[in-house]
Amino acid sequence: MFGGVVIVGALLSGLFIWRVIMSSPHSIGKAGERHVARKLSWLPKEYIVLNDIMLKTRYGTTQIDHVIVSPYGIFVIETKNYKGWIFGHENSEEWKQSLLGKKRMWGWSSEKHQFRNPIRQNQAHTRAIKRLLSEIGDFRIIPIVVFSDSADLRITAPNHVVVNWSSLRSAIKQFDVPCVPDQYIWSIVGKITSANIVEEKIRENHAYTVQQAQQRKRQMVANGICSQCCSALVERDGKYGRFLGCSNYPRCKFTSPLD
Questions:
Q1: Which one, of 158, 179, 183, lies nearest residue 75 by Cα?
Q2: Can you list the alpha helix ranges (DSSP code H) found in the chain?
Q3: Model confidence pLDDT, tens digit, residues 108-164
Q4: How far is CA 254 from CA 1, 93, 250, in A?
Q5: What is the pLDDT of residue 21?
Q6: 209/203 Cα distance (integer angstroms)
């Protein structure tokens, strides 16, 4: 009897630990990347998909969720497995996620979280790919940010492609003018795969470095300083309410949402 109780207790404990691990931001993010990788695998054979690429840059390393090499350009895809309402502007340092929480007597509670602007994040990835391929040629690079179908996108980004999972392949296929000659396709694939960093220690250090950099930027904004040009931040009115903007506008277009 006692042994049975111990076994049940161990199973429940293991289940609890597994749920905690699987609900961590890292695990949720990886699940989203796997989902997008499956969707991309259904593209025609002329699209060559490379997943989870880490490249060395002049500032350290950058990690890219998905790269697609095709005759129509090189697609650089950033995946966000977020749900709820997503608010943001292409020039903002951070975007906002708004979620309905638990049911209360007075209605639904809400949760709000801020996260790094994925367009800016993907711009760094695009620059890394462009520099890497500069020895081969100058190719069209198309950055795309893709969110879960559970995300309701309230994004202002006229100059960028930001879509849900269900619209990803159609977003890719809208670029249908050939611009990468066939003889370069496998040279590009080989260049990217050979530069990909696979050492676990370097990858772990990359994640820590990114977290530290984001903390420093958030601290600057909390102190009223623009994290791009170090000018003072001022409150302004916008389409979705008040926000912080750089006093050096229009030379610096940094913005940050207000709670």
A1: 179
A2: 2-22, 25-41, 118-133, 168-173, 182-195, 200-222
A3: 556 888 898 999 999 999 999 999 999 999 999 999 999 999 999 999 999 999 999
A4: 64, 6, 9
A5: 40
A6: 10
Hey, how many other C-beta atoms are within 10 angstroms of the C-beta on 227?
A: 19
Instruction: Give the phi and the psi of residue 151 in degrees, each rounded to 5.
Output: -100, 130
Q: What residues form DSSP beta bridges with 148?
A: none
Q: Report d(CA 164, CA 110) in Å as an integer.
A: 22
204 confidence band (pLDDT: 50, 70, 90): confident
Q: What is the pLDDT of residue 22?
A: 41
Q: Hunting for tokens 């309410």 — which residue is that?
A: 241
- CA–CA gap between residue 52 and residue 193 (Å, rounded): 10
pTM equals 0.72
Q: What is the spatial distance between Cα 24 and Cα 19, in angstroms, rounded to a whole number?
A: 9
Strand 94-104, strand 84-89: pairing: antiparallel
**Nearest-CA neighbor of 164 among 65, 62, 68, 86?**
86
